[in-house]
Amino acid sequence: MKENENYVAIYSRKSKFTGKGESIGNQIELCKEYIQTHYAEIPKDHILVYEDEGFSGGNLNRPGFKKMMEAARERKFKAIIVYRLDRISRNISDFSNLIEELSRLDIAFTSIREQFDTGTPMGRAMMYIASVFSQLERETIAERIRDNMHELAKTGRWLGGTTPTGYASESVQKVTIDGKAKKACKLKLIPEEAEIIKLIFDLYIEYDSLTATESELMKRGIKTKNNKHFTRFSIKSILQNPVYMTADETAYDYLVKENTDLNSDKKDFDGIHGIMAYNRTRQEKGKTATYLPPDEWIVAVGLHPGIIPGKIWISVQDSLNRNKSKAYRKPRNNEALLTGLLYCTCGNRMYPKISKRKTANGKPIYTYVCKLKERSKRTLCNSKNANGNTLDVAVIEQIKLLEDDKGSFIDQLEQSRKFYTRNRAVYEEQLASMRRDKSDIERKIERLVDSLAELSDSIAKNHVAKRIEQLNQESVEIASRIHEMEGLTSQHDLSDIEFDVMRQLLSVFKDSIDEMTVEQKRSAIRTLVRKVVWDGVNAHIILFGAQDDDIEYPPLSQLSNETNAAEDDFEELERFSDVDYEDDDDILTKTHRGEDSK
């Protein structure tokens, strides 16, 4: 008997969490009942369950589904059972390819709701027919959504959610033809924030650079609504948002030329109001939202005042597209050993960049640069750069010295393990509690945002708006604490095997490090070193088992500071091609409701 003959798989999917109807749990239980009836020989512990909650059936990009297909290709089961056909996919092409692959793998597929079984020719034929109707339903829903968006676009209203900088959401009441009062929202201008928007456009036009604009905003101390520094990504998002563009004749010509789905007449472009553009993004769960081209936008003149004249907004788009298309020569791969480990005393990471100079033996010289210093053009941090070649050598030499004092280092590791193992449960409980608090706050914010549309009293609305801001700040603070706690547990949760590796590594590090490849050296250093802090003159190694301020290690030798600091600090540097220089920037990963809503 084949190894997989005694196993079957259940797959369940639901687009949105709910405890009712065809929930994940209900689907699984119904499939198990089916297996008991039709696969009585299968033991209960031989039923493999794969599930995806919160994922659309529009494509197969789902973690549970991918895991199931990997198991199928390894022939770990003989059949897949689903509650309903569209739990697998609503796309005909995806579905037909899946059935063909399962057929090649000799794995049956059964949908208990439609009573289809690919083990029979009629079952396969009926399944294909059903998948056609499933996709038709999906396309009908999509068409209905687009029709609704057209109707919304005609109103020029704001759909709620996080408002763009420069505006606040304001409730308006209208009386329909049949005499009924309806409430909706529009954007209300915030003059002081509108001035920031104008400044951002002016600075970008002056410098023709997102980086230079970011630095100038930092120098002037101008921050976002959440009291954070503007990043290049948030600046670009503002520059690209048509909500700021004044609906004038130039804007009309541009939107017509770009083939947008325009729902306002030319006479509506009065040079006063702004633009509402719906369907600007496409988002898949787990992926960063992607911006759609103008020919997929649904556009209308909004009820809000515009801030940036059409001619200026359009010229900025041309500049962004031009800068994006410039050829960029990527430098060589990263050879810096302390990437991800090195921090400036200001608290920010330091990243390696390559210079045009070379060492005496002909190797390129690379330099570690503080990210905050670079972003703020030395206004918020002015620590000297660190010569990467010599700093890496100094760190290796310092670690080699640990071999001579191995006992004290192992004692630190043992103390660290006992401490963090004992407190692991406490950390996990604290993390779970903070995540619950964050979810509760987000739900409160959503309810308050929805309630704004129902409030006509301006005093009550102001109180609600202030409460939303307070809750948002609390959410940001909790998210920061969660990030810190997760980092703490991941940095110190060392297994027995990892401790043994450390012990062994200390014994061989001194003799073998010089023969290792760059990647091997980098991994070896990370096994022993938690972080390295550069104070502008010296670097300090912090090992696993020690807190940042628990123990002081002697500074590295002046070897790390031998090069001409002034020359390092002002020379032209290039990025390595394989370093993520944006790993701690605020990047939009989810789309809020509003003009981008689908």
CATH architecture of the domain at 167-326: Alpha-Beta Complex
Q: For the largest beta sheet, what order do the strands appear in spatially?
A: 2-1-3-4-5
Largest sheet: 5 strands, mixed
- Please, what is the CATH homologous superfamily of the domain at 167-326? Putative Large Serine Recombinase, Chain B, Domain 2
Mean pLDDT: 75
GO molecular function: DNA binding; DNA strand exchange activity
Keywords: Coiled coil
Protein name: Site-specific DNA recombinase
Domain Recombinase: 164-326
Secondary-structure blueprint:
Blueprint (H helix, E strand, L loop, with lengths): L7 E7 L9 H15 L8 E7 L9 H11 L5 E4 L9 H13 L3 E4 L4 E2 L3 H35 L11 E9 L5 E9 L1 H17 L2 H10 L12 H9 L8 H9 L3 E2 L10 E6 L2 E2 L7 E2 L6 E8 L4 H16 L16 E3 L5 E9 L5 E7 H5 L10 E2 H13 L5 H47 L5 H35 L3 H17 L5 H11 E6 L4 E5 L21 H6 L3 E2 L23
Parallel strand pairs: 1-2, 1-3, 3-4, 8-12, 13-17
Antiparallel strand pairs: 4-5, 6-7, 9-12, 10-11, 14-15, 14-19, 15-16, 17-18
Describe the fold and architecture.
- By secondary structure, the protein is α/β, with parallel strands linked by helices.
- Among the domains are: 8-138, 3-Layer(aba) Sandwich (Rossmann fold), CATH 3.40.50.1390; 167-326, Hect, E3 ligase catalytic domain fold (Alpha-Beta Complex), CATH 3.90.1750.20; 417-497.
- It has 16 helices and 19 strands.
- It has helices spanning 24-38, 63-73, 92-104, 121-155, 191-207, 210-219, 232-240, 249-257, 310-325, 371-375, 388-400, 406-452, 458-492, 496-512, 518-528, 565-570; strands at residues 8-14, 47-53, 79-82, 108-111, 116-117, 167-175, 181-189, 261-262, 273-278, 281-282, 290-291, 298-305, 342-344, 350-358, 364-370, 386-387, 529-534, 539-543, 574-575.
- The protein has a five-stranded mixed sheet with strand order 2-1-3-4-5, sandwiched between helices.
- A hairpin with a 4-residue loop joins β4 and β5.
- The chain is globular and about 85 Å long.
- The two termini are 51 Å apart.
- Residues 491-495, 549-568 and 583-598 have low confidence and may be disordered.
- It comes from Catenibacillus scindens.
- Pfam families: Recombinase (PF07508), Resolvase (PF00239), Zn_ribbon_recom (PF13408).
- Residues 164-326 form the Recombinase domain.
- This is Site-specific DNA recombinase.
- GO terms for molecular function: DNA binding; DNA strand exchange activity.
